[in-house]
């Protein structure tokens, strides 16, 4: 709970491994409250942070973040971040482009429609276009929060 997290934050140097994500919810929100204001702490990103997410904003240098409703914060409250941030490239829980294309190629039966999501806009568009041309299937590269209905 919160007491244990505060004890860790106040104690000896430590490495905290929290759930992945884009800092849009989960345990990382509580950890931010405990270590964010500490200039001796660092947040290391090892996963992709999509445009528009709090994770990407922190990567881009935001030093004050909204805390509306989480961790005791009231409406309009903010948290000042003094921790350092680092980005480690090369880690992924996803296949690379070739792996994704091979996956689609070997699907039996091959899908009629494919939605390409989760990546930089240009990369997602390129993959969608390649699948369309190479496999003659309908592909989509939806914008964030765009809705699709399948019947």
Defining traits:
two-stranded parallel ribbon, alpha/beta, 151 residues, Rossmann fold, 5 helices
Describe the model:
The chain is built from five helices and six strands, in the order H-H-E-H-E-E-E-H-E-H-E. The chain has two domains: 86 residues, Rossmann fold; 44 residues. Strands 1-4 form a two-stranded parallel sheet. A two-stranded antiparallel sheet has the order 2-3.
What is the structure about, briefly put?
By secondary structure, the protein is of the alpha/beta class.
CATH class of the largest domain: Alpha Beta
Low-confidence stretches: none
Structural class: alpha/beta
CATH third-tier fold name of the largest domain: Rossmann fold
Tell me the count of domains. Answer: 2
Summarize the SSE layout with pairings.
Elements: H1 2-10, H2 27-35, E1 42-45, H3 54-59, E2 64-66, E3 78-80, E4 84-87, H4 97-106, E5 113-115, H5 121-135, E6 138-140
Parallel strand pairs: 1-4, 5-6
Antiparallel strand pairs: 2-3
Helix pairs in contact: 1-2
């Amino acid at each position: 709970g919160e007491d244990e997290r505060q004890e860790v934050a106040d104690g000896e140097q430590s490495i905290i491994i929290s759930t992945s994500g884009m800092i849009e919810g989960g345990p990382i929100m509580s950890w931010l409250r405990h270590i964010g204001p500490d200039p001796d702490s660092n947040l290391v990103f090892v996963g992709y942070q999509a445009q528009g997410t709090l994770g990407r904003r922190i990567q881009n240098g935001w030093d004050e973040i909204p805390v509306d409703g989480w961790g005791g914060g009231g409406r309009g409250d903010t948290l000042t971040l003094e921790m350092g941030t680092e980005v480690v490239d090369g880690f992924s829980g996803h296949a690379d482009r070739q792996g994704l294309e091979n996956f689609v190629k070997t699907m039996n039966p091959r899908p009629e429609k494919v939605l390409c999501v989760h990546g930089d806009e240009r990369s997602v568009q390129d993959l969608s276009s390649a699948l369309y041309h190479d496999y003659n299937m309908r592909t989509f590269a939806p914008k964030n929060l765009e809705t699709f209905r399948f019947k």
